[in-house]
Amino acid sequence: MKQKTYEKENAFLSPYAKKSAESAGRVRQEEPCTLRTEFQRDRDRIIYSKAFLRLKNKTQVFFAPDGDHYMSRLTHTLDVSQIARSIARGLSLNEDLTEAISLGHDLGHTPFGHVGERVLSKLSPNGFKHSEQSLRVVDVLEKDGKGLNLTFEVRDGIVNHTKSGKPATLEGAAVSLADRIAYINHDIEDAIRAGFLKAEELPKDAVEVFGRDTSERINTAILDIFHHSNEQPFVKMSDEKAQALDALRSFMFEHVYERANKLIQESAERMLTELYTYFMGRPEELPPLYFATVKEGNVDRAVCDYLSSMTDKYAISVFKTLFVPREGSV
Question: pTM score > 0.90 for this model?
Answer without folding.
Answer: yes
